[in-house]
Amino acid sequence: MSAGKKKVWSDTTPLLHRRNSPPPPSYHSSSSFPFTVEMTSSSSPRRVGSLFLGIDVGTSSARAGVFDDKGKLLGTASSPIQIWKEGDIVEQSSTDIWHAVCASVKSACSLANVAGHEVTGIGFAATCSLVAVDSDGAPVTVSWSGDSRRNVIVWMDHRAVKQAEKINSFNSPVLQYCGGAVSPEMQPPKLLWVKENLPESWSMVFRWMDLSDWLSYRATGDDTRSLCTTVCKWTYLGHAHMQQMKEKNLRDMEACGWDDDFWEEIGLGDLLEGHHAKIGRSVALPGHSLGSGLTTAAAQEMGLRAGIPVGTSLIDAHAGGVGIMESVPESDSEAKAMLPEYWLTEGGQSATGALLDYIIENHMASPPLAERAASQKTSIFALLNSILKTMMQERKSPFVAALTESTHVLPDFHGNRSPIADPKSKGIMCGLTLDTSEGQLALLYLATIQGVAYGTRHIVEHCNAHGHKINTLLACGGLSKNPLYVQEHADIMGCPVILPRESESVLLGAAILGAVAAKKYPTLMEAMKALNAAGQVVRPSQDPKVKKYHDAKYKIFRELYEQQLSQRSAMAKALD
To answer: Ranges for the Carbohydrate kinase FGGY N-terminal domain (predicted)?
Structure first.
């Protein structure tokens, strides 16, 4: 986010398994990867002109979308990804991910009635997972199991908490550009963990890459890294990079934003060898055209033509920003973008969609509710929203949110990323009873949504207390399709939430990268203006009772963490 008035938030934690979606495949000894592809298409006829392909790899699936030169989605498809989760350790396979990407691309193009040779440009977005490959590009295990397929440390993996604490103890100057501390979800702690625990793998790895950078490398053979990924997750100093670009008038250049003292200090000085070859010797702006475009091998695998321009990638949440930032209606227009030369203030929660899944799937009422949703061809979220509306009427509640007056949730079930940066924080639920009904599940679901929204409010208040003036939310990601989720955010934040015309903002943002790489637009901003379109504006309730209610619940929300700190301290003293 720039230092202007707009704030982008995104569901950056795609669900591990959504209801009404096929589960990830179960793997046995076979090296083949089975796939199920989900597809949707636009009912509108395809327009003549340039066609751009956006690819987004989330936690549970790879998705592809084909857009026309007006930013209209013509067809989209998804394919599930295998995930191994054992406590704080979460791993995936880059081979599996690539197969899922290829399956979703073929299906999306087919559904959009687009031939492979018609695609004009391609862009990738992905979670901030860490990929390890050798000099031949083959996977190198990052797993205690030794399974070579498991070469991806997923973004949400928390194995490196101690390594993050060690890195933070040095108080390196680079830390002032990432909130004063690295999170165990960032790459330096994970790299240090591998070096300390898997020395054989450490010696074998030739390239350590953010997942979105690996995808563009796999597609083009060019291992240039994105300014987005390196700055946000690797402590790369983007302002130093931009200064060199201005002085040398270059778009693509040898990386000059690494702080060598930092890497030496934390015990990873060997990554400096070969001009930082293992972590990125070349860094480019998002949308920069990579190599000679899509390689022949990748083109055959994806059902496309060789040579299609491929743009330097973006983190998924940032791609969502690119896919929505210029969607602001004129009456609300003062758009600031996730672009080079803008400072970005990033705040996030470690679990949102995955947390809602956890709450729902672990409740006794969930199986029959899921069956009913499937029979009605709707989502379990839609059913829960309907149940809440009925409960409000039956209980004569003044508004839906008031149903949770006795139920409070601190959503730190996977730690707190922002603004507290406490990976040891735990989730808290207050107001539990022996009730196992669907109504009780609906209340827990609503209280969890509210807890997430209070977390967003905490982040924004922290930003505003330090010089920002955020008064509008721009929503993207899967949860932005849930009207209750969006309205609760508007009410709790007390500001409007803007939704784009195209709900698939992350895919559109990725496609915009392809449009820039194909030189259909001179800059990322110009492409955003051309391909984004205004959508709905969801405004907060004007009922003063709603504000009073949420202010009271927010106070309890903040107190829950303070109580946790007090309890943590008391128990530490008891065990001392």
So the answer is: 52-323
Cβ atoms 188, 182 nearer than 8 A: yes
Buried b (16+ CB within 10 A) or exposed e, 272-311: eeeebebbbebbbbbbbbbbebbbeebbebbbbbeebbbb
The DSSP call for residue 467 is T
CA-CA distance, 556 to 560, in Å (whole number)? Answer: 6
CA atoms in the 13 A half-sphere facing the CB of 359: 31
What does the chain come to in residues?
Answer: 576
Q: Give the integer Cα–Cα distance in Å for 322 and 554.
A: 30
CA distance 307 to 294: 5
Q: What is the strand order of the sheet 252-254 is part of? A: 225-226, 282-284, 252-254
CA 77 distance to own-chain centroid: 18
The pTM of this model reads: 0.86
- Separation CA 193–CA 543 (nearest Å): 51
- Secondary structure in 3-state letters for 130-194: EEEECCCCCECCCCCCCCCCCCEECCCCCCCHHHHHHHHCCCCHHHHHCCCCCCCCCHHHHHHHH
**Tens digits of per-residue pLDDT, 255-301?**
889 999 999 999 999 999 999 999 999 999 999 999 999 999 999 99
State the Cα–Cα distance between residues 215 and 430, nearest whole angstrom.
43
Structure tokens belonging to residue 97: 């991910």
The answer to whether the CB of 210 falls within 8 A of the CB of 232 is no
Q: Which amino acid is at 170?
A: F
E strands, 416-471, are 428-430
Residue 10 confidence (pLDDT) above 80: no
Q: Name the 3-class secondary structure at 521.
A: coil
**3-class SS string, 70-107:** CCCEEEEEEEECCCEEECCEEEECHHHHHHHHHHHHHH
Alpha-helical segments (H) within 518-543 = 524-531
pLDDT, tens digit, 9 for 90 and up, residues 185-232: 999 999 999 999 999 999 999 999 999 999 999 999 999 999 999 999
